[in-house]
Amino acid sequence: MTSILSSPIEYLKGVGPQRADLLKKELQVFTFKDLLDCFPFRHVDKTQVRPIRELSPQSDYAQVSGTVISIEEQGEKRGKRLVAVVTDGTGMLELTWFQGIPWALKRIQRGGRYLVFGKVGFFMGRPQIVHPELEEFSEEKVNGKPFLEPVYPSTEKLKARGLNGRQIGKLVWQLFEALGPRDLPENLPAELVERFRFLSRYETYRQVHFPARPELQTKAVDRLKFEEFFFAQLRLNILKIQRHKESHGPLFAKVGDLFNTFYKDCLPFELTNAQKRVLREIRQDTGLGKQMNRLLQGDVGSGKTIVAVLALLLAVDNGFQGCLMAPTEILAQQHFEGISRLLEPLDVRVALLTGSTRSKERKEVLRNLQEGSVHIVIGTHALIEDPVQFRALGLAIVDEQHRFGVAQRASLWKKSVVPPHILVMTATPIPRTLAMTAYGDLDYSIMDELPPGRQPIVTVHRHESGRPKVMDFIKSEIAKGRQAYIIFPLIEESEKLAYEDLMKGYDNVKAYFPEPTYWISMVHGRQASDVKETNMQRFVQGDTQIMVSTTVIEVGVNVPNASVMVIESSEKFGLSQLHQLRGRVGRGSEQSYCILMTGSKLGQEARERIKVMTSTQNGFEIAEKDLELRGPGDIEGTRQSGELNFRLASIVQDKQWLELAKREAVRIAEADPELLSDDHRPIREFLLSQKGKTAWSKIS
Ligand SMILES: Nc1ncnc2c1ncn2[C@@H]1O[C@H](COP(=O)(O)OP(=O)(O)OP(=O)(O)O)[C@@H](O)[C@H]1O
């Protein structure tokens, strides 16, 4: 049965072909249901008639009733206006028209009594409404059916064609004339509706658009927010359960010699409890013959690399290959060197493959991967784009920084006969709510414990006037044998400016730290990758004491001897970036310092960020704050593939609903993943009716 809601919008009374075209183009409203889903952005209160005396500059929209005591056309030509004065015995109100004067003159008479509605302004100390709505007064209108009138989002084009926010409301009203409760059947289990005391689905839509009372509107909006979260979570959880049930993955049946030898003889330190826990989770996942899809969130410096190495050995022990993808060439190179060193005592062949690997070498690596003589390959994302084929890829580890989406993950599956296990590692913690919505289909592990012996990084905020002292401080640290980073912002919109800033900064630093007492490395995005690499290496090896750089070093670089991080113009960085940058120091057991330099004038949000940075070092707390300050859409690199496109709900403001919806969705998905029970029939039918829109491919 096709529902009336799928009717094309041109069939709605009052629409017609021309308006339909506009609605489609301007608001993407194609059907009745699309119009129903256009929610008003506010309501104007028509439930009350206010005494004129009480109107104030804060009144916003108001409704009054009064008698017209004068009507006068004022001004000439372009400045012409119509002014009517109305009184209700408590005060005088001016009604003014600049346009449509002949029309207004026909509708208003001296001595007539009217209901007037509009936005209250003040002109020469008197309340005034420009272009008011006007109706002849009748007791019935006031006492009959007062309501909150919806105002809808409109566009300039729509307004020009007579469809402003309030007229769209009239269309929605028309729509409700044609709709009954049966057109909006329940989509949640009855038990759940009752437990949360939700309005029925029909009533929900009605009250969202035309609320009888403000509290009913709130109730209706709450249900819709719950629905948005609930269906998103349900879909992700069912996908996860189905994947667990159906997927086939490489079986890592044993913990073999390589893993054991490395663990016993080569591990340079005792693993933290968090590292051990995550390894256990990985072993469990990979030992079932199902495909693992796991997100590992580790705070900066929590020691993800060693977890990755052990997981890769597990793969090799079981006759599979592994790959590790890093977000930049520098990091791939660094991982390659570090991991090759660690694995030197073992009989494991490790290769590097990045965009700048020369073609002869590349061919060889590609051949070795296909033949299976290379066990582990480390590279950049070029690894998935290149025609790389493995003999038997068992595990792909992606060091992702939020940049690795569903599509890339899927492309990894084609690299080998059986889809490999996938471990996505993020170094910037993701707020819980964001992880739930954007990565809800993955299993996830958290590493929130730092290796022992780390000291908190002393973080301070300094203005330009404090620069000489900052420079002296760096000198004193270098004198102790330590190294320092000085970071300049990379502003993408104005790369040239950022480059000039960096060069100026470099000259300044050089003036403070002259050769040959001091040596400086500089790394920035305009350098060829071998130059970058050499400069980086000199710093890593301790040949240079200072690294001046744009944020190319933001992620992952590991130089435990560096103890000072100076961030120039730090107000220009986002919180997670600042946290990442700060994480480059404090990686050894020495006391480290982070100095946030800023200009003297800071905006509210920048001040807030600096405050957060100087008060906590916990990446998970910082991530929550970042989300609060900037919203999910602005979180750096957040996956934007629709997971967060909620119409009404906000993962920041509606956390409680998200938690509740998740709890219910998990419960239902686990108990009845195919939604076959009678109780769950409303959900099933609803999802099937949404097919195509929600990628509900599995249960049909
Ligand atoms: N259990 C441990 N005990 C002592 N040191 C450790 C331990 N685990 C890792 N380390 C050391 O801590 C430093 C940071 O580790 P690693 O580079 O793996 O961090 P990470 O989690 O990748 O951090 P980031 O994302 O900030 O790069 C390294 O020098 C590493 O050798």
From TrEMBL:
Residues 285-447 form the Helicase ATP-binding domain. It holds the Pfam family Helicase_C. The keyword ATP-binding applies. GO terms for biological process: DNA recombination; DNA repair. InterPro entries: ATP-dep_DNA_helicase_RecG, DEAD/DEAH_box_helicase_dom, Helicase_ATP-bd, Helicase_C-like, NA-bd_OB-fold, P-loop_NTPase, RecG/Mfd, RecG_dom3_C. Keywords: ATP-binding, DNA damage, DNA recombination, DNA repair, DNA-binding, Helicase, Hydrolase, Isomerase, Nucleotide-binding. It is an enzyme of class 5 (isomerase). It catalyses: ATP + H2O = ADP + phosphate + H(+); Couples ATP hydrolysis with the unwinding of duplex DNA by translocating in the 3'-5' direction. Plays a critical role in recombination and DNA repair. Helps process Holliday junction intermediates to mature products by catalyzing branch migration. Has replication fork regression activity, unwinds stalled or blocked replication forks to make a HJ that can be resolved. Has a DNA unwinding activity characteristic of a DNA helicase with 3'-5' polarity. This is ATP-dependent DNA helicase RecG. It comes from Dinghuibacter silviterrae.
